[in-house]
Amino acid sequence: MTRLVGLCLVAGVLLAGVLFPVVGGAGVLLARTGDHITGPVALPADVEPPTVTTLVDADGEPFAHLYDQYRVLVASDEISPAMKDAVVAVEDHRFYEHHGVDWVATVRAALRNYASGGVVQGASTLTQQYVKNHLIHVEARHDPLRQARARMRTPERKLREIRTAVALERRLSKDEILTRYLNTVPFGAGTYGVAAAARTYFGTTPDRLTVPQAALLAALVNSPAALNPEHHPEAALQRRNVVIDLMARYRMLVPEVAEQAKREPLGVRTPVRPLPNGCVGADPGLGFFCSYVIDHLLAKGLDPERLKTGGYTVRTTLDREVSAAVERAVRVQVPRDTSGVANTMAVVEPGRERHEVTALVANRDHGPDAAQFQTMLDLPSGVSNTFGAGSVFKVFTAAAALEHGYGPDSVVDSPTSYTSRVFKGGAQGCPSTGEPDTRWYCLRNHNDDYPPRMTLRQALATSPNTAFVILEERVGLDAVVDVARRLGMRRTLASNIAGDAPDPNSPRPELRVDQAEFFTGRQNASFTLGPAPSSTLELANVAATIVSGGTWCEPTPLVEVVDRHGQVVDLPASPCEQAVPEAVADALATALSDDEDRGTAAQAARRHGWSRPMIGKTGTTEEYKSAAFLGATMDHAGAVQTFNDSPDPRPVCVGTGAPRLCASGNLYGGTVPAHTWFDAMTQIHANLPATPLPPLPRTQQASTGDG
């Protein structure tokens, strides 16, 4: 008896709900009674549903997607009539007759539930279902408590839902409500909204859904898991045909069409999988570029949550043809399944207003499974080569020398061995300074074949170590490190010598400071030999800066970001600055122009038939654990780093077959890195005219002495 009284009371309140007026501007429904369950009720908040963000290449083709919920919003005219009819038939066949609440169905359901002593029948209209689904899957999607409350079968919750539905019907047209519903509800298999469901189950768009397809999707809304057509095809087929029968009953289909539709197979794609999500799901070979784009967007201030839910179109500078050429070259030299050896390459377009990144590639795949030669480290863009770029860093010593009055043809000393009386390094065999635990810095060239003196351009081409330590003495290590930063090694120098952010709490003093402070603070002359972690992308951008008249620009993968409404998102522009005087940059380009002709990369250049003007510099680390090549034409700049990426810090050997970890090592910048660069760049430049490097400035032509 008590339950019957409660039922009558609720039914009366529900009926009164239709009489409550809507306060227009406030968007809330106000009750005329004092009961707490008839107080102000907000309409669905103007919170936009989460939608997919899409990353597209330079030609506008998608290559990666990011989302919190796989949903693509579509307009009413982008949804087939069959889909609308199917949902109305099975969920609310009086949808176009009521004003948000189907009172006939509501009373009938209430009486049946009372008679059974439980909930055996619902009466929610499509409008009510939209209100509920919007709360659960949009407004409260990260709030389990609110979601649980929205699912509770209580008179109080039902009252709020009904009153909100009535108010909503006074604000929106039937078609608007139906479209919102179809864009909001889950269809199973990780999909939300009809567009995502159409693609996932049938590989089509919602405007092309046929009657059998639409009926299946409409069936899934009620119980996506139990009716999953991949795992429960018989149940799915039976329920789909029920929906088709209902469409015929309510005169949405003629009987003959309905019977033909019921004879159609389910026709779902196998396997049923939603759109790949995140950079792990990016198109093959493009996961590292995707990761770099995300890092760049976050650094520019885009909220990470908004990035996954905002439905942006991110237009990038990715050039698929360039990337494909790089990927092939990288993996020819070091196959993806080569244990312990990574091969990375970055390509940047030179320019005085922008430095666009067109390719970021590694022989590894971007992913979490190391057993499948995947990695989540940003190998091409991050400071990932922990063993360093080797003698590529001699470029910075040469640049500092040119700023101090040297010219490409200035003569420098290159003795077989050298002991610095300026720098301390503690190398074996150096004479003691008399100070505890300190020694002068001494070193030898790689072999004894170097002449005792040579021009700066010859030194860059042949790479004697002693010549560049002597130059460091003359121009000052601080100047060398500073020009390295200006030319582009900014993230690299901001990391510590482990390749990480400086850790002030580390027990190791060398990890508490960045590389710039580590080398300058200790006056460690080995900086010019490149022994510390470095970024492949930043090396490529250094090359781009040199051939851009000394103009450094922050490397960027972005053209623009457009929101779901077609508006361009305002993000901070990538800055540019004159890193070194144009005359110095042009002189440095001249000084670096002999490597492919008669320097350490000459053999690789000849093998690939290279004949274009370019700059280049090889680098090899002392224990052969890594090597690098930096190079550029006036059209494309690029860098390659090949290094041990295993937990076992052994040298790398090259020769017959794939590179491998070994005991002694013979990896040089002129081997794998140079061959990778020339292989890729030969393809990339195939249809481009050969553009000469800038001429040597007159002021530098006169600088032929010792500086």
From TrEMBL:
Gene3D superfamilies per record: Biosynthetic peptidoglycan transglycosylase-like, DD-peptidase/beta-lactamase superfamily
Keywords, alphabetical: Carboxypeptidase, Cell shape, Cell wall biogenesis/degradation, Glycosyltransferase, Hydrolase, Multifunctional enzyme, Peptidoglycan synthesis, Protease, Transferase
Location of the Penicillin-binding protein transpeptidase domain: 355-625
Start and end residues of each Glycosyl transferase family domain: 60-247
UniProt key word Protease: yes
Region (Disordered): 688-707
Comp. bias intervals (Polar residues): 698-707
Reactions performed catalytically: [GlcNAc-(1->4)-Mur2Ac(oyl-L-Ala-gamma-D-Glu-L-Lys-D-Ala-D-Ala)](n)-di-trans,octa-cis-undecaprenyl diphosphate + beta-D-GlcNAc-(1->4)-Mur2Ac(oyl-L-Ala-gamma-D-Glu-L-Lys-D-Ala-D-Ala)-di-trans,octa-cis-undecaprenyl diphosphate = [GlcNAc-(1->4)-Mur2Ac(oyl-L-Ala-gamma-D-Glu-L-Lys-D-Ala-D-Ala)](n+1)-di-trans,octa-cis-undecaprenyl diphosphate + di-trans,octa-cis-undecaprenyl diphosphate + H(+); Preferential cleavage: (Ac)2-L-Lys-D-Ala-|-D-Ala. Also transpeptidation of peptidyl-alanyl moieties that are N-acyl substituents of D-alanine
One GO cellular component, as annotated: outer membrane-bounded periplasmic space
GO biological process: cell wall organization; peptidoglycan biosynthetic process; proteolysis; regulation of cell shape
MF-aspect GO terms: penicillin binding; peptidoglycan glycosyltransferase activity; serine-type D-Ala-D-Ala carboxypeptidase activity
Domain of life: Bacteria
Family statement: In the C-terminal section; belongs to the transpeptidase family. In the N-terminal section; belongs to the glycosyltransferase 51 family.
Protein name in the entry: Membrane peptidoglycan carboxypeptidase
Source species of the chain: Saccharothrix carnea
